[in-house]
Amino acid sequence: MKVAVLDIKGKETGRKVDLSDAVFKIEPNEHAIYLDVKQYLAHQRQGTHQAKERGAIAGSTRKIKKQKGTGTARAGSIKSPIFRGGGRIFGPRSKDYSQKLNKNVKRLARRSALSIKAQENSLMVIEDFNFEAPKTKDFIQVLKSLGLEDKKSLIVLGDSNNNVYLSSRNLTRTEVVTNSELSTYKILNAQNVVLLEGSLEGIESNLSKS
């Protein structure tokens, strides 16, 4: 599968790259995508919600009134949930929401997501670029040239590039990641995926493993 390489001005460089059919041109596996996205979203949950039940409340354990003769219900502790300041009944507890997923399934899901973007013509390859200093204005100009200014886009770098990353950080509709940070959710959540030439080798190497 051959794709034209663009420069940061959105013009063709006259070069083409051969994208691996095993990564960018497979029959998408929807169930693998579902499992990988489900795991990703589950891992975003902190699970630190915790309420104090009666065993966690600080307070006296003495019986606050006699058992009988008061005309009211029995009460054995000031920490009872029916009293103000008492413990909570069946409150939320801390929980680990993380899920396990086979590596091969994750690779299949990412190949499927990239193949979907390729089928939709929402995938482009541009030559590697850098900025002399972090500057959002320069990054916006690159997006304008590529026709992505008003679109949700994912920019995939070969290696971490601090200037490019910092230049994009204030833009809510654009995310910059390295090829090792690529996930099925991020690929599908973006309207357009932009791959820098330097990221292709790493992507194909990581996702071609069986």
Automatic annotation (TrEMBL):
Residue runs in coiled coils: none
One Gene Ontology cellular component annotation held by this UniProt entry: ribonucleoprotein complex
Alphabetical UniProt keywords: Ribonucleoprotein, Ribosomal protein, RNA-binding, rRNA-binding
One GO BP: translation
Lineage: superkingdom: Bacteria
InterPro entries for this protein: Ribosomal_uL4, Ribosomal_uL4-like, Ribosomal_uL4_dom_sf
Region described as Disordered: spans on this chain: 50-77
GO molecular function term, any single one: rRNA binding
SUPFAM superfamilies from the UniProt entry: Ribosomal protein L4
Entry-linked PANTHER family: 50S RIBOSOMAL PROTEIN L4, LARGE RIBOSOMAL SUBUNIT PROTEIN UL4M
Family: Belongs to the universal ribosomal protein uL4 family.
Function: One of the primary rRNA binding proteins, this protein initially binds near the 5'-end of the 23S rRNA. It is important during the early stages of 50S assembly. It makes multiple contacts with different domains of the 23S rRNA in the assembled 50S subunit and ribosome.
NCBIfam families for the chain: rplD_bact
Quaternary assembly: Part of the 50S ribosomal subunit.
Protein name per UniProt: Large ribosomal subunit protein uL4
Source species of the chain: Zeaxanthinibacter enoshimensis
